[in-house]
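Example (one chain per record):
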Amino acid sequence: MKRVALASYDLVPSSKGASQHILANAHHLREVCQVSLITLGHQPLYGWRHLPIDIMNPNWLSRGKEFYHRCKDIFAKNPFDIYHVRSPWEGLAVPKGKPLIYEVNGLASIEMPYHYPKMVEQPQLRGKLRSMEIALLDRATRVVVTNPITKSYLLDIGVAAEKIRIVPNAPSFPIMDSLVKTKHDPIRICYIGTLTRWQGIYNAIRALECIESFDFRLRMLCPSKGRKEFEKWVYKRTVGEKIRVEDPISKEQLSLFLQEQDIGLAPLTPCARNLIQGCMPIKILDYMAAGLSIVTSDLPVTRYVLGDGGYYYRPYSTDSFVQALGKASSSSKNTHIRLNEHFSKAKQRDALLSVYEELT
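Predicted structure:
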């Protein structure tokens, strides 16, 4: 079996979509390869050949540099047949000339200013990150993306079309039986994901204050980063008493949680991360798998996933959001057919393994 290093400057395991995506790929790959996981982490993942690299430095850039050096040392001592990476920190540590798959789910040069706003004042730093990304794109044997928006962006910056392959995301849990669901009273709305500004949840809560035609409750499953400030803000809103902010839960618990909800929110903002770079939110796939009505901003990335299955609204339009939520509260759309045809675990597996077949 081919020896594969699946390395990523991400914390594994965690509740974030990145961790779920990494482990989903690892599950598919170990059917045909010997997979070694190399990630940020505190202890090895049970049942896996996993080397967690525990770096205590809180500075993102310093951690990245340390991760690069640790990966370079690991790769020098342990040769692999294929290297599968998700960022330049581990990708540029791969020995030159080796088969290299660069999985582009997010580019730090675009995303980091949303996490660290002061980076906007340091264009030279963003330029350095971009140079690292371009260097890795040039070295990569194959470049994997989850959607055509990201593919289009990479083509625009000069990546050769013959390098790029689309491997879609898939839901976190099996698709549930298609049952006609009766909406609850009050309507149960949910949001799962981070509080990063590109998610648009602040705008969505402001719009919820204008809902008058029905009563609702919103439950949010969010990681701890930024949550304390968010909770202070949300409980000052007029709808604060209708909102609960909770910790993320396991994918087994998540499927049960979503079964009890009526509407899933995905209020992405029309920013560079969503419009130019592109994305494929696992939250939307999970809402689809659970059979929820999905209220989402009308963007190319959401249209690509949902097709006609979403209740769309114009970004930043409160009236449009209220109308979409009103329709979602009183009707349903079946998204299971689209999910099965385009974004199932089987589709993800087949697309990923076909990339590996090209390199073996």
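Caption: The chain has two domains: 2-170+345-358, 187-341.
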